[in-house]
Amino acid sequence: MAIAVLKAGLLATVQDRGRYGYQKYGVNINGSMDESAARVANLLVGNDENEAVLELTLTGAALTFTADHMIAICGGDMTPYMNNVAVPMWQPVLANKGATLTFAKYESGCRVYIAIAGGLDIRKVLDSYSSNLRGALGGYYGRALRSGDVLEVSPFSEGSTCSLLWHKLQNEEKLSFTAQHFAMAPEEVVTIRYIAGPEYEWLTEESKTKWNNSVWKVDAQSDRMGYRLQGEHLALNSKVELISQGTVHGLIQLPANGQPIVLLSDRQTTGGYPRIGIVAAVDIAVFGQLKPGDSLRFVAISQEDAEQLLLSYEQDLALLKTAIKLKCRT
Questions:
Q1: Cα-based torsion angle of the residue sequence 9, 14, 17, 22 in order, rounded to the nearest 10 degrees
Q2: What DSSP character marks residue 328?
Q3: CB of 195 within 8 A of CB of 303?
Q4: pLDDT per residue over 254-283, tens digit each?
Q5: Which CATH superfamily is domain 189-309 in?
Q6: How many CB atoms lie within 10 A of CB 113?
Q7: Of 28, 33, 37, which Cα lies nearest the Cα of 248?
Q8: pLDDT in tens, 190-246
Q9: pTM of this prediction?
Q10: CA atoms of 299 and 330, how far apart (whole Å)
Q11: If you compute the radius of gyration of the chain from its CA atoms, what whole number of angstroms results?
Q12: Domain boundaries, the chain
């Protein structure tokens, strides 16, 4: 059971929810840029949420299935087709032996996630499947996918959620549920909620106003490590040097040029720039679907509100998981 990569596209990697517990040794966390889409894709095919998925960036890939598989495609819309027939997103679908999955054109978002029932048969490195491209470890031989690569797929056990969904799809034209409500709705200006960081009060009053009332654009030099923002120049009350400290997902740093940087999946393990904010955990995945030139604004919320938003989101995911299991048994 395998998937042949006919065309890898701009950047295709293997990811999961990240490599935790090794940041103190200088090892990046990595993981899916849009963790929400990756988790939902895995749930839709009956996998564990932390199973390896394929992450495609900005352009699609061409994949041929050498056996029958069940897949789910979530994230940005790049118009997926299976043997020239449109494939629905945010729901499980069958990919028959010999079928080729392609992507016709970009519609919205930035990254697509493909989960395969049973998961990819690759070795974990430091407890994670995620690709660390700078360190050349994890994922598929520590690198991005290339044309000609072959991805082995693990079998799933009889009686598992994967198996029950598989039999449902084989006996029905399609399953009558989707997880489309987890998709990010296209917006001209995306709103990102954040919590004030340890050095937020170091900003001048004028800069605080600019930060909270301006529209920012994603800079072309953004990548999985961090998104650089273009907009109003932000200044501190005085020049201060900081000792480097550990970084966290969604940390908003302010370098000397006055243009903020949001640290993301491949972020460095330590940093010394002033920390003016931290993106609410529930909104971090939004950056995975933003591309250079996209616009966003920031809205301050309390830590308690951020925790409640995350709790509500996790409850929604738990409901989806329960609904899938119930659907398998009806």
A1: -120
A2: H
A3: yes
A4: 999 999 999 999 999 999 899 999 999 999
A5: Cyclophilin-like (2.40.100.10)
A6: 27
A7: 28
A8: 999 999 999 999 999 999 999 999 999 999 999 999 999 999 999 999 887 788 889
A9: 0.94
A10: 43
A11: 20
A12: 2-183, 189-309
